[in-house]
Amino acid sequence: MSHNSEISKAERRRLAMASATLGPWRAAAVVGGLGGGVALALGAIDEGIGLGMLAGALSVALTLFFVVGGAGAVLGGGTPADGGTDLRIRRWAAAHPWRVAAVPGALMAAADVVVRQVLTSQGFIGSVWDGLWRGALVAGVVGLVGRLSRGRR
């Protein structure tokens, strides 16, 4: 499974999705919730409460959620629940951090567009642009964490 030429594109996509599901998503939800709460409190003090400020706080929460969950997926800590399959997926994720990083990056971009379209009067193109750069930020951080950790193993 270590050779990319032996794995089809569809199998690589499935492996990337499976790898991303092995992240510490409960811990990521806690970190995202705390970060979003702090952003909400600071926004309420600075601007007052409004939908734009709420959208900004949700973007912070989503960013932290996907960064922590994605980074945990590429780091692959903990004990696999299913010794064989999970271990193979974790090894693949460690060897391909940028492919795994694309999953939380894409999910961040999509979620941010939805949040901005529902909560703000921002236009669709502006929402897509904001979602894309936030998704790229998440993918970049997760991929970098995976790449740098690979060199230390």
Overall average pLDDT = 86
Structure summary, number of beta strands = 0
How many helices? The count is 6
User: Radius of gyration, Cα only, in angstroms?
Assistant: 17 Å
Give the distance, in angstroms, between the N- and C-terminal Cα atoms: 19 Å
Shape: elongated
Contiguous uncertain segments of 5+ residues? none
Largest sheet: none
Helical residues, percent: over 70%
Order of helices and strands: HHHHHH
Structural class per helix/strand content?
mainly alpha
Strand content: under 5%
Tell me what the structure shows.
The protein is mainly alpha-helical and 153 residues long. The protein is built from six helices and no strands. It is elongated.
Properties at a glance:
153 residues, 0% strand, elongated
Task: Describe the secondary-structure layout.
Blueprint: H1 9-21, H2 25-46, H3 51-75, H4 83-95, H5 97-119, H6 124-152
Brief write-up:
The chain has helices at residues 9-21, 25-46, 51-75, 83-95, 97-119, 124-152. By secondary structure, it is mainly alpha-helical.
